[in-house]
Amino acid sequence: QVQLVESGGGLVQAGGSLRLSCAASGSILNIIRMGWYRQAPGKQREFVGDITSGGTTNYADSVKGRFTISRDNAKITVYLQMNSLKPEDTAVYYCNIVFWGGSVWGQGTQVTVSS
User: Fold this and answer.
1) β-pair partners for 18
2) What are phi and psi of 87, to 5 degrees?
3) Are 81 and 21 a contacting pair, CB within 8 Å?
4) What backbone torsions phi and psi does residue 110 show, to the nearest 5 degrees?
5) Which of 11, 39, 95, 100 has the greatest CB tally within 10 Å of its CB?
6) How far is CA 46 from the centre of its chain?
7) Angle at 80 between CA 83 and CA 84, to 5 degrees
8) pLDDT at position 1 over 90
9) Residue 73 region, left (φ>0) first, then alpha (ψ -120 to 50), else beta?
C-alpha cells in the first residue's frame, strides 16, 4: 500500500517560514486532489488547503495570503510553503491525497511557532 512521507516540520519563531513536503512512496493513479490538514492540541483536525488535479488551489481563510500549496506530479509530491507564521499555526500537519476509490494520509509532522 502506498504511504505518504512528510518532512519539513520544526520549530520556528513567529514571522518565520517553513516548507513542508509530502511524497508518495509509490504510484497513485487518478488523483483528484492533494491537500494539507492540521490538528492543534485539544482541537479537531482542520482543513488548511488543497490543490486539485486541474491545478486549482483552495485555502482556509486563516492561512490565505500566507500559505501556498504546490505539487510535482512526476514525483507525486505536494508542498506547503508557510510564510508569516503565527503561534496559532502550531499543530501537527497532515497531508492527504484523494484518488478514485479512496484516499491516503501522511503520518503527520509537527510545526511549532514560538512567540
Assistant:
1) 82
2) -55, -30
3) no
4) -80, 130
5) 95
6) 11
7) 10
8) no
9) alpha
Cell of 95: 497531508
> One-letter amino acid identity for 59?
Y
E strands within the chain? 4-7, 10-13, 18-24, 31-39, 46-52, 57-59, 67-72, 77-82, 91-99, 102-105, 109-114
The pair phi, psi for residue 89, each rounded to 5°, is -85, -5
CA 90 to chain CA centroid, Å, is 13
Cα–Cα distance, 36 to 73 (Å, whole number): 16
Q: What angle do CA 34, 37, 40 make, to 5 degrees?
A: 165
Distance CA(90)–CA(11), nearest Å, equals 9
Maximum CA pair distance of the chain?
42
- The tens digit of pLDDT for each residue in 19-61 reads 999 999 988 999 999 999 999 999 999 999 999 999 999 999 9
What pLDDT was estimated at residue 76?
95
